[in-house]
Specification:
- The protein is of the alpha/beta class.
- The chain has 2 domains: 158 residues, Rossmann fold (3-Layer(aba) Sandwich), CATH 3.40.50; 81 residues, SIR2/SIRT2 'Small Domain'.
- It has 9 helices and 9 strands.
- Strand 7, helix 8 and strand 8 form a beta-alpha-beta unit.
- Helix 5 runs parallel beside helix 9 and helix 7 runs parallel beside helix 8.
């Protein structure tokens, strides 16, 4: 696999790296994307499932859909791209992984420094008291789970349409963009803001921006370098080169 001498040098020397991942990396594990003819929204209207008012009107329907999503995700495994990023984290002093994905595959692959902009489907919280619960599930009666503390409705801890991204996660992501030397945009369509603005923030702050994707996106013309291909192929190659270069330095 070929990449520029400048990227090669950064693989060996960068002390601060930020990575943004989107649905493309999880698609390689078999998780359907949200957009496109075969996407998750192709058969269901987002407004019927992924906003708070819709949830309060019909929590049973929303929980039924998210329970099926959780089942699908439980049946897939992190791929070589996820595992490569977990290994990359161990090679860099200052590493931040920002993801738009809610599937928890990065953590399952071993990544620890993860900022989840859209939440995590494995978590839930009470709409009344805010209590978090990692074990809330729909029972055999198919009724939505209730809070064990106050009895309020539990909801998936994911960002729905019309909701703000978690402030702490977004601020940490922006801080990482401002200080990183190398920024990787991996498997994201770069159309969903504010996450889509992170590569541009990193570039404005002086970082070298590399896009890893199977197709061109809205930011392809504005990055420093494009590596065509899937995350499961490109990222392991980058990590192997990083290990080689950094071993030679030590």
């Amino acid at each position: 696999m070929n990449w520029s001498p400048h990227l090669d040098a950064l693989l060996g020397s960068a002390d601060s790296i930020c990575v943004l991942t989107g649905a493309g990396i999880s698609a390689e594990s078999g998780v359907a994307t949200f957009r496109g003819p075969d996407g998750l929204w192709a058969k269901l209207k987002p407004e019927e499932l992924a906003n708070f008012d819709a949830f309060m009107r019909n929590p049973e329907l929303v929980w039924e859909w998210y329970s099926e999503r959780k089942r699908i995700i439980h049946d897939v495994a992190p791929n070589a791209g996820h595992r490569a990023l977990a290994e990359m984290e161990s090679l860099v002093r200052d590493f931040t992984l920002v993801t738009q994905n809610i599937d928890n595959l990065h953590r399952r692959a071993g990544s620890a420094k993860v900022r989840e902009l859209h939440g995590n489907i494995e978590r839930s919280f009470c709409v009344s008291c805010g209590r978090f619960d990692n074990s809330a599930t729909v029972g055999e009666d198919r009724k939505p789970p209730r809070c064990r503390q106050c009895g309020g409705l539990m909801r998936p801890d994911v960002v729905w349409f019309g909701e703000m991204l978690p402030q702490e996660e977004m601020e940490a992501a922006e801080d990482a963009c401002r200080r990183c030397e190398l920024f990787l945009s991996v498997g994201t369509s770069a159309v969903v803001y504010p996450a889509a603005g992170l590569p541009l923030l990193a570039r404005a702050s002086g970082a070298y921006i590399v896009e890893v994707n199977t197709e061109r996106t809205d930011i392809s013309s504005r990055v420093n370098e494009t590596l065509p291909g899937g995350a499961g192929t490109v990222l392991p190659a980058l990590v192997e080169r990083m290990k080689e270069l950094r071993k030679a330095r030590s």
